[in-house]
Amino acid sequence: MLEAIGLACVRGERRLFRDLAFSLAPGTLLQVHGPNGSGKTSLLRILAGVLAPAAGEVRWSGRRIGALGDEYRRQLAYVGHQNAIKDDLSGVENLMVSERLAGADATVALARAALARLGLKGFEDVPTRALSQGQKRRAALARLAFRRACGLWVLDEPFVALDATAVREVQALVGDQLAAGGMVVLTTHQDVAIRAPLQQDLRLGT
Amino acid sequence: MSRGTLGAFTCMVRRDLLLALRRRSEIVNTLVFFVIVVSLFPLGVGAEPALLRAIAPGVVWVAALLASMLALQRLFAGDHADGTLEQIVLAPQPLGLMVGAKVLAHWLIAGLPLVLIAPLLGLQFGLPAASLGILAASLALGTPALGFIGAIGAALTLGLRGGGVLVSLLVLPLYIPVLIFGAGAVEAGASGLAVGAHLSLLGAFLVVALFFAPWATAAALRIALE
Fold it and tell me: From the list B7, B82, B90, which residue is nearest A76 (CB)?
């Protein structure tokens, strides 16, 4: 269970939001809406524990995420608006690195399967520098195919630059994650419908 | 250290070495800078053998200092720019250890070549064979310490405009003790004194930097990402 209690965020001189509170039960999708600059990315970074909130706290299973540390991070998969892939490494190499860092025993076969699922078959060994914007996004999202065991996915604009086929594939991944009792927090400006048994919507900047 | 943590550590070292291998110019840059700076001195101060022999340890050490500082800015900048740093911070691994892995890889790329080529440059200054060995040994102990200390500065100036100059201002004063004992070891050896004390002190600096710098760097990185 993920809880946000009285969250506030200040960037520079501007207060983006205050007294933000919600709690997510397993299997819940939280979609964060709001215009540009309303603090969606900041909220997601606070939930991931990269950014410290100006006030309030985030709790996972009743404990502060700061106190949980690695225990929380093991439960977390975060895809930011940057792809976090190395231009000079191939898709497979990038995936292997990120899985090893996550402490998982990744194999090349699994990495290839994950990339194939995101429609990158045939591009697994190409340096990602040579891929298009959408293909790079796919390579970044391929991480999610590995992270079934994670309790929480935090996705910042996952559908940016993706074509219709890839959007469907990511929707399916998110659907699987929710069906398995995981939680997903995502922001998107696109009109992408995700069928979720439990869904909450959060509007920022209103 | 659990198996997953060890795996993450070696993976990080291998990743950075692989990236350097695919961008070879960066390895060569530091090395060429080092060689050129050292070679400028005989041209500047004249070819008086006794004088050159006397200034050699200091010149080589100062050049190594500047070369390792030049390389510092690349330590985290690439990972910061493409978002991988965020993923490293979010990985369920001790961040200090990941920093240690990055600094180790960085030393293998930017520091070790300097250690290996320094005796050759020493010859250019007419250093005796015994001094060449001490020079290499002092650099082998000193340059990793420079890397660990410099990592703190690199992390603190991450994402700042004009970070390159700032990192020099932050880090150079901290490099002074390493410079004094590094160059001192070679000078002591040349004048027939025991070098053990100098090298032990360099070793001590390395151990202290090895244990404390990664945690300070990790804290700085977390701040830089906010």
Answer: B90
Which residues of chain B fall short of a pLDDT of 50? Answer: none
Q: Among residues A122, A148, A174, which one ends one of the domains?
A: A148
Interface test with A, best of B87, B93, B215, B223 (most A CBs within 10 A): B87
Of B192, B198, B205, B17, residue with least CA distance to B113: B17
Mean per-residue pLDDT pooled into runs of 10, chain A (206 residues)? 92 89 92 90 93 93 91 92 92 92 85 91 92 94 83 92 91 90 89 78 83
Please report, for residues A63, A93, A186, B23, B80, the alpha-carbon distance to residue B224 in angstroms, rounded to integers and kept in the order given.
Answer: 25, 27, 24, 26, 9
- CA proximity to A43, closest of A185, A169, A197, A183: A185
Closest residue of B to A9, CA-based? Answer: B226
Residue A80 in domain: no
Domain that holds residue A155: 1-75+150-206
Distance between CA atoms of B57 and B122, rounded to whole angstroms? Answer: 8
CB-CB under 8 Å, B8 with A82: no
Checking ipTM against 0.85, whether it exceeds it is: yes
Q: Which DSSP helix (H) or strand (E) runs through B153?
A: helix B129-156
What is the C-alpha separation between B103 and B97, in angstroms, rounded?
10
Rounded CA-CA distance A158/A156 in Å is: 6
- Would you state the structure tokens that stand for residue A119, as one six-digit string? 């429609």
Asked whether the beta carbons of B67 and B143 are under 8 A apart, the reply is no
E strand map for B114-189: none
In a shared domain, residues A101 and A142: yes
Instruction: Quote the pTM value.
Output: 0.92
pLDDT in tens, A156-178: 999 988 999 999 999 999 998 99
